[in-house]
Amino acid sequence: MRNSISPTSFFPILLLLIFLPFTQCSIFPLDKSGNLIEQICKKTPNYDLCLSSLLSNPESSNVDVKGLAQIMADILLGNVSDSLNYIEGLVKQAPEEQLERCLAYCAELYIPVVKYTLPQAIEALSKGQYRFANYGISDVAKEADTCEKKFSSSSIQSPLTDMNNLLESLSDVAVAIVNTLL
């Protein structure tokens, strides 16, 4: 007796092969999330920073675009908090009064960002209020720039340049991700 494939048993497989590429589901969710992360990061001003930041969080492989925006905002908040702690430590050790004033000025810029602005932006993001979230997240880049300008206006070399540049870049990436939700 010969083994034969009936047309009715082959038909479901044929349908699957034809329509699978057009569906939003994926047999391999990690590939889909990796592709989502790559697609989103390509829409940001700093692809490498976006990719490395999101991939550093294991949850990023299991979320949608809104989740990626939330993760990036949380990463930004963590970095601003760390920066504020670092600045406060430098203020205590500043050898010159002018340097201490500049550092204190930067700390005063970052305190409301850490305590109010970013937490409110993150909450707005979770509620789908993307424009408000965008505004709060973009404030980080403005404050980092203002901090840096304080040093240049006082002719003191900023010990915060690299950190401020990173905060600006993270903020720009987070804003770009939120913009994809608008």
TrEMBL record:
The keyword Disulfide bond is annotated on this UniProt entry: yes
Keyword terms of this UniProt record: Disulfide bond, Signal
Which SMART domains does the entry mention? PMEI
Looking at the keywords, is Signal present?
Answer: yes
Query: Would you say which domain of life the source belongs to?
Result: Eukaryota
**Domain Pectinesterase inhibitor stretches:** 32-177
- One Pfam family named in its UniProt record: PMEI
In the UniProt record, the signal sequence range is 1-25
**Can you tell me where the transmembrane regions are?**
none
Per its record, what are the GO molecular function terms?
enzyme inhibitor activity
SUPFAM superfamilies listed in its UniProt record = Plant invertase/pectin methylesterase inhibitor
* Recorded family membership: Belongs to the PMEI family.
Q: Which PANTHER family match?
A: PECTINESTERASE INHIBITOR 5-RELATED, PECTINESTERASE INHIBITOR-LIKE
Q: Which NCBIfam families match?
A: PME_inhib
Q: What is this protein called?
A: Pectinesterase inhibitor domain-containing protein
